[in-house]
Design a protein that fits this description.
With 101 residues, this protein is of the alpha+beta class. The chain has one domain. The protein is 26% helix and 21% strand. A hairpin with a 5-residue loop joins strand 3 and strand 4. It is globular, with a radius of gyration of 17 Å. Bound molecules: zinc ion.
Length: 101
């Protein structure tokens, strides 16, 4: 069976929105090096394993607005470290790491 359009569809689904940018391998290494330089413990607080993967994207933590369900304009971009065993996420602010202005 031949699916001539399948690769294109897959590619489109995997393409991030314009405002999202996949971290380069160098940036992922930068996250790992920064965390290591701070003496961060590698043991997962949830499952005790110690293997982590750096997420492909930064996440954006929006400021809380009292009385509204809408997020505020201020945001705090963060890098994700995901436990390879249980998928627990650790977040580290991207600015001190040097990933954002
Ligand atoms: Zn874990």
């Amino acid at each position: 069976m031949h699916y001539p359009h399948a690769p294109n569809r897959l590619q489109q689904r995997g393409t991030p929105a314009p405002d999202q940018r996949r971290l380069t391998q160098a940036e992922k290494d930068q996250v790992g090096d920064w965390v290591a330089s701070k003496g961060v413990h590698n043991t997962c607080p949830v499952c005790d394993h110690n293997t982590w993967a750096v997420g492909d994207y930064l996440v954006q933590n929006a400021a809380y607005v009292p009385g509204s369900s809408k997020p505020g304009r201020a945001s705090y971009p963060a890098a994700m470290l995901m436990c390879s065993n249980c998928a627990y996420l650790r977040l580290f602010m991207a600015a001190p790491i040097g990933l954002v202005e």
